[in-house]
Hints:
Elements: H1 5-10, E1 18-23, E2 26-30, E3 36-44, E4 47-56, H2 61-83, H3 89-101, H4 105-113, H5 115-127
Antiparallel strand pairs: 1-2, 2-3, 3-4
Amino acid sequence: MRLTDDHCRDLPPQARRYDTSVEDGLLFSVFPNGTKCWVLTYTVDGFLRRRTLGLFPEMTVEGALEAADQARRVLAAETELARYGEPTGAAGRRSLLAAIVEGRPYLAVALGMGFAAALGLLLVWLLG
């Protein structure tokens, strides 16, 4: 049985979030506050990930199916880039941060500790 907009509209909220499977990897989630959304599930390095595609009723069943296909194509492209070592957005940020802290161990420690702890360390160094 194919899920319809009327069926989605009639799903009541419960005490915990629950999911209704639409097709492979596409879920319809209903939250306790009554929010209903379309979610694409996929795995990355063996971990299950969830990507929200849109809210119901703004996105219909047909729109969710199209959005899921498009999201799968994007995920496949990102996977191919990662497989061949092409830099993604996060990799570029990591390499920039690594270049900034290279040769500066105190800066690396300060970034790992947080602003307040780094400020305290700076004061101790200046006054000490």
